[in-house]
Structure formats: C-alpha cells, structure tokens
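Section handout, structural biology tutorial.
Before the tutorial, make sure you can parse a SMILES string by hand: atoms, branches in parentheses, ring closures as digits. In the record below the ligand is adenosine-5'-triphosphate, and the chain has 256 residues. In the tutorial you will relate the predicted structure tokens back to the input. Do not try to memorize them.
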Amino acid sequence: MTTAALEIQHLNKTFRSSDKATHVLDEIQFTLAKEEFVSIIGPSGCGKSTLLKIVAGLDAEYEGTVRLDGEVVRGPGKEKGFIFQEHRLFPWLTVEKNIAADLSLKDPDVRRRVDAMIELVRLQGFEKAYPKQISGGMSQRVAIARALLRKPQVLLLDEPFGALDAFTRNHMQESLLDIWRENRTSMLLVTHDIDEAIFLSNRIVVMDARPGKIKAIITVDLPYPRNRVSPSFQALRTEVLGALNHIEEDDAGWQI
Ligand SMILES: Nc1ncnc2c1ncn2[C@@H]1O[C@H](COP(=O)(O)OP(=O)(O)OP(=O)(O)O)[C@@H](O)[C@H]1O
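Predicted structure of the complex:
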C-alpha cells in the first residue's frame, strides 16, 4: 500500500437552488492507497453519499480536486465500480448474464472471466438463477461480481449491506473481506455501522455534519480476520465512538 489510488484535495460542495445554497462538504481531504480499504462513517446528512457520487464521477459540480490513479475524475467510467444499498440487478437476466451485462457470454474471454467472478463471490450453482430466486445477500454478491468484472481501480460501496438482516450482514462482511483479499481492488465504503467499519477497514474516516467535514481518520491496526469480541476491537469501537460523540446526539444513528 504505497501509491495513492484516490486523492481528494480541498473538496467543497454546495447545492444551489434559486433561493438557497447549502454547503454540504467542507475541505474534504484524504487519500486511498492502492489495495487499501477505507470506510467513511458519520451522521445522517454529513455528505457521505454526496462524496461517493463525486468520486464516482456522477456529480461534477464541486470545487477541489479528485484524482484516480493520477487522473482527474471527469465522469463515470468502468475504472470506478459502484455498489448501491439495493442491488439494482436486471430482474429478467440470470445471475451470469447480470454479471456479464453488456458483454457477451459467447465471447470465450468474457465466459472465463464471468466464471472466475462467480467463483470469487461463491455463487457456483446459481449461474442460471434469476434475481427473484436468490437472497438479498447473494444479489449483492452478484452486483459486486458485475462491478469487479470490469476491473475497476476502486470499488465504491454506499451502505451495501444496510438493507440486510444482522446475520446476513455479518456473513456479507466476511465475503467482502475474502473478495478484497483475493482481488486487491481498493475499497471505499460508506457505512452507518461502526463494527462493520472496524471489521473491514485499514482506516476509518469519521465525518461531522453541517457542513460535512472530516473529524478524524482512525487507523485500524488489527490483523485480519478480526475478532469482533476481542479487547482490541472493543478499544477501537470506543475510539470511533469517542470521535463520533462530539457530534450532536440527535444526529446519531449508529449501529454497533
Ligand atoms: N440534490 C440535492 N439538492 C440539495 N441538497 C441535497 C441534494 N442531495 C443531498 N442534499 C443534501 O446534502 C446533505 C448531504 O446528503 P447525503 O445524502 O450526501 O448525506 P449522507 O451522509 O449520505 O446521509 P445518510 O447517511 O442519511 O444517507 C443533506 O443535507 C442533503 O439534504
């Protein structure tokens, strides 16, 4: 983890309408190293999704600089994979066709890569299933496979497990960790879940609201796989909560 995959410098974002201007992001600055896993946590409305959309190239109306692998981000592209809270699969396509999407499975290279992705996300046996025949967690694994097939430099995940029950969420966190360790794509995850951030990340960016700014960047120096009930995990939970505790109580919506 030496070179920066993503560099965000002096990022400011203001939403403007005819009668008001809302300053949503204030002087956001951080880097994401190649192969690094960074989570962003903060109160509702602090601009986490706005920040992710800017990095994804889905919102170009901002001040500051966002560079991916040295290139200024100017729009969406396959170098940036995006995973939403809801999986957004095509209901009329099978699992393997959803992963291939606009690419033809008749192309032997695409077929080979899709098979490798199915293996990576552990969906062997479900290639011909339709989204309505698989669980929410499996659907998110299909969405992740579809994004990774395009070999993005960074995978952007906006509360990808927020709609899943606690058991499935834990399982998905373990799956995502396996995928990341095998695939080594840089990961930027937005979450409300402190344990999820500690379980997965190399570093946690803690944000404050109105306007959204960085409160602290906490390094998670625990070996993988992490034990959620260990004293060192508990100590980090306390540290993240401490950073969040300065934020007004009525803003908080954490899951721990
Ligand atoms: N298109 C828009 N026009 C005006 N204001 C917006 C727009 N999109 C978002 N906002 C405002 O920007 C702020 C940040 O929103 P954003 O969705 O990025 O926050 P968030 O931290 O992701 O919230 P949550 O955790 O609830 O998903 C909020 O106050 C929101 O109302």
